[in-house]
Amino acid sequence: MAEKNIVIVGAGFGGVFAAKTLSKKLKSHKEYNIILIDKHSYFTYMTELHEVASQRVAPKHVQEDLEHLFYQNKNVKLLTAEVNGINKNDKIIKTTHGDINYEKLILAIGGQSNDFGTPGVKEHGFEMWSMEESLKIRNHVENIIGQGAAELDPVKRAQLLTIAVVGSGFTGAELMGEFIEQRRVLAQNYKLDESEIKLVLLEASPSILNMLKDRHLADKAFKYMTSNGVDIRLNSRVTGVNEDGVIFADESTLPTKSLIWTAGVKAKSFISDWGFKYGRGGRIEADDYMRAKLDNDESATDIYVAGDTLSYVDEKTGPVPQTVEGAESAARTASHNLLADLGFGQAKTFSELVKYHGFAVSIGSHYTVASLMGLNFSGFFASLAKHGINLFFYSQIRSMYSIFHYMMDEFFRTENGRNPFQGTISRLGNVLWSTPLRLFLGIFWTLAAVGGLGDLNMLFWQHGLASFIEIVTGAGILLGLFTWPLAVVSIILTITAWATNGFDMTHWFILLSSIAIMNGSGRGFGLDFYVVPLLQKLLGGLWYGKAKSIYDDLDK
After folding, report:
1. CB of 110 within 8 A of CB of 268?
2. 506 — pLDDT class (breaks 50, 70, 90)
3. Hey, is 179 helix, strand or coil?
């Protein structure tokens, strides 16, 4: 049977979700190839780019290699290439790799920043709708604050130490929240008074976060930012940017070398001549089934749209938002109806398949406003809810690897207290302090096994199997090898001895010591420093394959 290609252009939220969905549904139908094309070899978690720009997390945190995501999906082929156009009559996608035939096509190409033609933004400002742009901001902010700290002229110093963000939507508000926290770190590193670093949020309308229906939540976000020293300027329409700063509609200015534009998103400009019907922001309009509308206003029979490429207004929920759930819902509808075209199920409209649970806007790592499942709340629990939304997406695309690393990067590898728990659960604390306790516990179990504790041996139910377990536990903990699982064994041994021989204060000490060394103590003068990373590399390679910078699975 001849192979048929289902091509997905774009490995963003919509493209990845669609590829995972189609891969699962077509797993037993070997005649279909799912080809995922993107100019990058990785998926970028776009809604977390502000964390990269502000140095809260490393760039790799928001990048998920496509090989890791799809290594177990054998019917998905990856192609790192740029798409140059479509021949709809011959059903061909034109790429830098060459022409690719398609049976069905999903366009989920994503978007780019929209500066609405404001003069000087591209030349003198920064935009944030890609990893490359976030890295530019990350490097610039660090360098410019360093220059400002060394500048003696007060006027130039103030200009260098002013960071302005244009746009108070989700992206602008979240970025400003991150700058609130980064400012503390920068001030300490460069020996500045924190108040010297000016943070200015510019909004053309009379209020912030205008997409929020509950204005009470927007007011809370406003209060949090202003109480943390953010200068929020409403009704401030930016008409230009130059090398000296920002120019407003009333011809007033704001001196700064750091203008970051987050005021709009539009479709990628290169799709403008592909022969579709285009809506607001140059997006491709779609019908109720997510089929692309052609320039004659008819719906294509074999081309679907999802993600930021999409322009669609649902009669119940309104315009599809540029959010993760918006991309998921569009991709779910496109995938479902594509499968229906192939004879797998019945077609359904967007309204029948849409799933919106709500949203959460993080104003830094410590404060969030959220509206989820009909509940509005803010603060610590809202911050946990924001992480829950991100983890839910990873569960949707079935990536335990991503879930694990997300938890590590957002909770256990954070620096400078930048997580909802103020950094108290970060494992970047100095594990050397618990190393002496680990050594003591290892010696304790070793001596218990060989009978070197005298009367205390009666507390630990000595017989052959128990002695063997104790000496393995003791030796492993002493060497710092597999410390975490052996600490669990230590806890089990202690509880068993407690239940067998009755309570003794020794049990409490061993129990709590076992919990304490689970903080990564095996990496402090221990073998876990070498063994754990090696196992992660070996086991990760067996399950997820090897990441590459360029993919070309089509020739396999």
Report:
1. yes
2. confident
3. helix
Measured between alpha carbons, how far is 53 from 178 in angstroms, rounded to an integer? 9
Q: Which two tokens stand for residue 131?
A: 């990893």
pLDDT tens column, 200-223:
999 999 999 998 888 999 999 999
Q: What's the CA gap between 56 and 416, in Å, rounded?
A: 9
Q: How far apart are CA 252 and CA 18, in angstroms?
A: 48
Provide the sign of the torsion angle of the four alpha carbons 64, 65, 71, 75, taken in this order.
positive
pLDDT, one tens digit per residue, over 70-88 is: 999 999 999 999 999 999 9
544 versus 186: the higher-pLDDT residue is: 186
User: What was the pLDDT predicted at 476?
Assistant: 96
Which region, left, alpha or beta, applies to residue 334 given φ > 0 means left and ψ of -120 to 50 means alpha? alpha
| Whole-number Cα distances in Å, 255 to 141, 198, 240, 488 | 15, 11, 12, 58
pLDDT tens, position by position, 316-352: 888 898 888 899 999 999 999 999 999 999 999 999 9
DSSP structure string for 383-438: HHHHHHHHHHHHHHTT-HHHHHHHHIIIIIS--TT-STTTTTT-TTS-GGGGHHHH
**Residues whose CB is less than 8 angstroms from the CB of residue 174 and which lie 6 or more positions away in sequence, other chains included:** 50, 361, 362, 363
Sequence length of the chain is 556
Strands 98-101 and 92-95: antiparallel
